[in-house]
């Protein structure tokens, strides 16, 4: 094809075509998935997924693999019964009760090796304690805990009782915690007095104090302590987990047998409009899928030491620190503090200390390690067999650095594309079966049917190197069940655009991921990023609307819009464009108020990179803000088509104001 006929995206993807890297023979020789037949076997829809469910212990086997009769409310392993906590703990006791299940490294280097037997005892006692405080099957328990053992223990205790958990990342603000507690109809918040950040004790419980003032509900609060004695003021109304556990020492709680379709947890995530959505995940299909992908994609074996350096407060930690790895009976490492504390070699020091075999991180972290330099990893003696990246596109340069300086050119890398909603990996190579290509997620996971559609819903030709809207054409077991309490929003957000919503044939329903992607000639998928108003800041997903409504809370602000600015390290950072009210001076004080409003509404991790004062925002004649234009301004790009604007001179004015900043 002559180059003039290629679209920019095609051209770009051709120019950036990368070389391949083969998995080393030593890796292939020991891998869990070495037979390409897995694609055909799992791809036999829907029964192919039975082999995933067969990785688990079931109290009752399912009668039907899949029920698609009420789309898009699909059901998996219908009639089956199981308990997730049993699958992650009890069933391993015969074979590996003295093996470490969770290897926790505290901020100051203190360590807890929690064996499967310890985990069994601690989860049982915690379940007994929660039950004694009234937690029953189907009650949603909000968990606002940092990276301490209490977090997975509380999650597994909830799972044992059949009480869905809703973990709110510890970095979220009181306001965000209150909103999620209300939205989930939750009557319990589990928290802790504090934890360590860069070596300093950070009080955490005050966020719960404030959330109780802000929330409509009046949840009971149960609190863990980071040390034996409280390090922060704890309200007398709160229940101390330590006291409760003493009362229930040695108690056992039978795992509650859950229907495969009963919810295991909620995970809130940002969308394009309104408040965050509570993605509801089922017990059977979710656990089966994350166990299988942990086995085939992450290549986890029980004897491995596996370290996913994400936070359990996000979906990656749920699926690939807690549920997948523990369902397979491996040793999962958890680390409390940041990678640069007390020095920039901390991650590699821990990897050496525990002899980690499999390492899992984000492109943002890789870019940071790269910036710090290879002298840090070089000081430590660690040897990964397998490495993962997740959460954002990884630039080939960062990939190559990771491969060379962290993997020593003999570890495989999987670039896994998936989402909070998908529960587990959907686009990724199986590492022993296909070569790696830097910057590409690779093939679709077994049984997954991705496709690209153009904006009118027509199929983009397969493997044509052309960009399109990424969709998944066939259901899979770990897909979200619904948006908690809002089936309509579930349909509108994920299905309405590309499905025949009047049809009761599941084949007419297509899941919209919200990402743009390209499938190159070799069949490999490369995910380009969000097509909607969702940003990806250091691998954290943020809705521009949420940021905007936080900025607009500031009294002096008449109107605000947010656009992502590309950032060499964090991928994207938010720029706020604000119009102040008549008579208000555009000052640093107002800027600071906007920043603190975002921190208060969402959390410090969402802090805007820049606040730019402008006279007007670019709007269409119907009054819709054209964020794309702001994005172009933030990134120093051409303005693009401005003819649909009510006042086409606005972008130039903004550009001048921005340059003048
Ligand atoms: O834009 C995609 C990006 O992260 C979004 C999902 O974010 P979240 O629900 O927070 O889950 C993150 C962890 C699974 C996607 O819509 N994304 C995720 N993985 C990749 C990615 N973009 C490119 N390559 C990836 N491997």
Would you kindly provide a brief summary of this structure?
The chain is an alpha/beta fold. It contains 22 helices and 30 strands.
How would you sum up this structure, described in words?
The chain has 661 residues and is of the alpha/beta class. Among the domains are: 84-256, Rossmann fold (3-Layer(aba) Sandwich); 535-659, GMP Synthetase, Chain A, domain 3, CATH 3.30.300.30. Strands 12-11-8-6-7-14-15-23 form an eight-stranded mixed β-sheet, sandwiched between helices. Helix 7 crosses helix 8 (150-161), helix 7 packs across helix 11 (241-247) and helix 19 crosses helix 20. The longest helix has 17 residues, at 116-132. It starts with 7 loop residues before the first helix and ends with a helix. The model has no long low-confidence stretch (mean pLDDT 95). Adenosine-5'-monophosphate-propyl ester binds at residues 269, 315-316, 390-393, 415-420, 441, 513-515, 527, 529-530, 536, 541.
In total, how many beta strands?
30
The CATH architecture classification of the domain at 84-256 is: 3-Layer(aba) Sandwich
Give the rounded overall mean pLDDT.
95
Shape estimate: globular
Proportion of strand residues: 15-25%
Distance between the termini: 45 Å
Class derived from helix and strand content: alpha/beta
Task: Indicate the percent of residues in helices.
Answer: 25-40%
As laid out across the biggest beta sheet, the strand order is 12-11-8-6-7-14-15-23
- Rg: 24 Å
Distinct ligands: adenosine-5'-monophosphate-propyl ester
CATH topology of the domain at 84-256: Rossmann fold
